[in-house]
Specification:
The structure holds two protein chains of two kinds.
Chain A lengths: L3 E5 L2 E3 L6 E3 L2 E3 L5 E3 L4 H12 L3 H6 L1 E7 L5 H10 L3 E5 L9 H17 L5 E5 L10 H9 L3 E5 L1 E5 L2 E8 L2 E8 L2 E5 L11 H9 L2 E4 L1 H4 L7 H4 L2 E8 L7 E4 L4 H11 L4
Parallel strand pairs in A: 1-6, 1-8, 6-7, 7-14, 8-13, 9-13
Antiparallel strand pairs in A: 2-5, 3-4, 10-11, 11-12
Helix pairs in contact in A: 3-6, 4-5
Chain B lengths: L4 E5 L9 H11 L4 E5 L5 H9 L4 E7 L6 H8 L6 E7 L2 H14 L2 E6 L1 E5 L2 E8 L4 E7 L4 E5 L16 E7 L1 H8 L3 E7 L15 E5 L8 H10 L2 E4 L1 H5 L20 E5 L5 H4 L7 E6 L12 E4 L2 H16 L1
Parallel strand pairs in B: 1-2, 1-4, 2-3, 3-10, 4-9, 5-9, 12-13, 12-14, 14-15, 15-16
Antiparallel strand pairs in B: 6-7, 7-8
Helix pairs in contact in B: 3-4, 3-5, 6-9
The chains are: A alpha/beta, B alpha/beta.
The structure holds flavin-adenine dinucleotide and adenosine monophosphate (AMP).
The site of adenosine monophosphate has 22 residues of chain A, from β6, α4, β8 and α5.
């Protein structure tokens, strides 16, 4: 059967570069942000699911990527195109600035509902965590908002007709979970190895259209999201104070003893 | 009724209470009278500890269903939060999602993985380290009820000045309610991993961690030797896990366990951002690496430039000599 899969992806500051906060929000330039690395896995998984279909089914299938974020977040969608997404939606509205988890999930849920209004969806895929804050809560909140079953942190995903089955390793246990489709499934970095985009996809990704939706398009009340709707407030955000300069011992036969002396000096043993 | 109770979700009450649960009780006490809740009936040992920590009100969440399903756990917890100001739970993956579901059910604000918890102008505040450990962020919850997951080692556990006499009551979630709360999800199977060499503390909550990376070249012997001399847990990089040198549960980092021990010792680990994100909030960081230019030295308190295969056993021997 043809599949219609929604993938929610986040644009995050590059963890390899310097970052900044201002007024309790992340400040980022387009050049130092990208698609959350862990969100390549759900896009790849969606592509693989479609590859498992016959040609006729595939022609009817769709991978819709959605991001909620400021103007530069469109880069995450372009990257998702390179990886094989077919349709992209950017939810962008000034009133979304300063959203906490709840606000983000509300806006995402409204966008997913709007996509589903055009035709039934089978699956909503997400990453296991956004590498900026490592919250790992948006997929669960999204499932709750949508009233869909939640299968999170999947290291394996199998679709069998109208059922999804995942295997996951969490908190020192291996679990197998099942739910009827449509379901919200977040996947971790063990589920697959995202491919390198080929030249054709990279070129095509530059010009593919991205649909932009505002809160008004989604029928979401601005008071429920952004700073206005946030249930938490950042008091202060500061770069971590520099550590005292590192004490370096070059081993010349007594490195282990020097290490223990340090521990003793610090009262750690 | 005003919200004033400080609720703690205990992780494991079937034996003696462990460090992280005692830490949560210690923090909770500073925010209001404590109610301890758990999905199992507390053992005699656990009750004794609760008494020492000044907890009189103990709730056994008696679920006729599968409390390992996020939706079910949240539905069971909601009724014990009606007079609560705050719910504190350990920073496990499952708890994050249970609290997310509770936030949805109750409209409460959510802070994930606070490394410290306190108050600011009468609001519950949490402090955390983000962006691979490079920024410190202080936040407050502005709703009447605050939901927080709290990292191990946030405080040192301290018994209460006045002990209490714990009374356990059961709060039930019946089969029909549990079924509805599962939202169509079925737990097909759940297998707890054997903690081999269980003499070592669990990684996520250990106060000392010795971690090994690719520089071990597959021999974790020296890492284990030093860990055992320190009573530490063993950690690893993803590369070491991917090589099959050590179990996946030992992976420290952004896609593994995030740790905040008092002491972290990394050996043969370069210090990639993905790894640092999981350990950079450790109090004291020590590294042993043969490369004087390795990035982990930039975030260290103490570094040994040398071969871990000789430095670690020497350190372990020196520690054993001290205590002998
Ligand atoms: C999406 C994603 C998520 C990831 N998540 C994680 C994660 O959660 N955790 C994680 O750890 N990694 C993670 N990684 C991988 C990470 O980027 C690094 O590749 C990894 O941490 C490097 O491991 P390492 O330090 O063991 O190996 P290397 O970087 O190869 O470093 C080995 C070090 O050992 C030193 N060495 C060699 N021989 C000796 C010796 N005899 N004595 C002393 N020192 C020696 C070398 O000088 C070197 O510095 C992730 C990557 C991706 C893409
Ligand atoms: N602003 C956003 N837009 C789209 N998807 C998001 C957004 N924030 C989080 N997600 C999704 O939720 C997952 C977990 O994010 P988090 O809960 O923030 O760690 C990510 O991997 C994304 O798939």
């Amino acid at each position: 059967m043809a599949r219609r899969i929604v993938v929610v992806v986040k644009h995050v500051p590059n963890i390899h570069s310097a970052r900044a906060f201002a007024d309790g929000r992340t400040v980022r330039g387009a050049e130092d942000g990208s698609l959350n690395e862990l969100d390549e896995h759900p896009v790849e998984e969606a592509v693989r699911i479609l590859e498992g279909l016959d040609e006729a089914e595939r022609a009817e299938s769709e991978i819709v990527v959605i991001t909620v974020g400021p103007a530069e977040a469109v880069d995450a969608l372009r990257r998702a195109f390179q990886l094989g997404a077919t349709t992209a939606i950017h939810v962008n509205d000034e009133a979304l600035a300063g959203s906490d988890y709840a606000g983000t999930a509300k806006a995402l849920a409204a966008a997913v509902r709007k996509v589903a209004a055009d035709g039934p969806i089978d699956l909503v895929l997400a990453g296991m965590a956004a590498l900026d804050g490592l919250g790992s809560v948006v997929p669960a909140l999204l499932a709750a908002e949508l009233g869909l079953p939640q299968l999170t942190n999947a290291g394996k995903l199998e679709l069998d007709g109208a059922t999804a089955r995942v295997e996951r390793v969490v908190d020192g246990a291996t679990e197998v979970l099942e739910a009827p489709l449509p379901a919200v499934v977040s996947v971790n970095d063990h589920i697959n190895r995202p491919r390198f985009p080929n030249f054709k996809l990279i070129m095509a990704a530059r010009t593919k259209p991205v649909t932009t939706w505002t809160l008004a398009d989604l029928g979401v009340d601005a008071a429920e999201v952004g700073e206005a709707g946030a249930r938490t407030r950042v008091l202060s955000a500061e770069p971590r104070p520099e550590r005292a300069p590192v004490e370096i011992h070059v081993d010349a036969g007594a490195g282990g003893e020097a290490l223990v002396e340090f521990l003793v000096r610090r009262g750690l043993v | 009724m005003t919200r004033h109770i400080s609720v703690v979700l205990l992780d494991d009450v079937t034996g003696a209470l462990r460090g992280p649960d005692l830490e949560l009780l210690t923090v909770a006490r500073t925010l209001g009278p404590v109610r301890a809740v758990a999905f199992e009936a507390p053992s005699a040992d656990a009750l004794a500890a609760l008494g020492t920590y000044g907890v009189a009100d103990v709730v056994h969440l008696d679920v006729d269903g599968e409390p390992h399903l996020t939706g079910v756990a949240a539905a069971a917890l909601a009724p014990v939060l009606t007079d609560a100001r705050v719910l504190l739970a350990r920073a496990t993956f499952a708890n994050k999602e249970v609290l997310a579901r509770l936030a949805h059910l109750t409209g409460a604000g959510l802070l994930i993985d606070a490394a410290r918890v306190g108050e600011h102008d009468g609001l519950v505040a949490g402090w955390k380290r983000v962006f691979a450990g490079s920024w410190d962020v202080d936040s407050v919850v502005t709703t009447e009820l605050a939901l927080l997951t709290v990292r191990p080692n946030a405080v040192r556990p301290v018994p209460a000045d006045a002990p209490a006499d714990p009374v356990v009551r059961a709060v039930a979630l019946d089969a029909a309610a549990a079924e509805a709360a599962a939202g169509g999800v079925r737990l097909v199977s759940r297998t707890l991993h054997e903690t081999s060499g269980s003499a070592r503390p669990p990684l996520a909550e250990a106060s000392v961690v010795v971690a090994g990376g690719r520089g071990t070249l597959g021999d974790f012997g020296p890492v284990e030797d030093l860990a055992d001399a320190l009573g530490a847990a063993i950690g690893a990089t993803r590369d070491a896990v991917d090589e099959g040198w050590i179990d996946h549960d030992a992976q420290v980092g952004q896609t593994g366990v995030t740790i905040t021990p008092h002491l972290y010792i990394g050996a043969g680990i370069s210090g990639a951002p993905h790894h640092r994100g999981g350990m950079q909030a450790s109090e004291v960081i020590v590294a042993v690496n043969s490369d004087p230019e390795c990035p982990i030295f930039e975030i260290c308190d103490f570094a040994v430039v040398g071969d871990l295969a000789t430095v670690l056993p020497q350190a372990a021997a020196a520690l054993r000599a001290r205590t002998a």
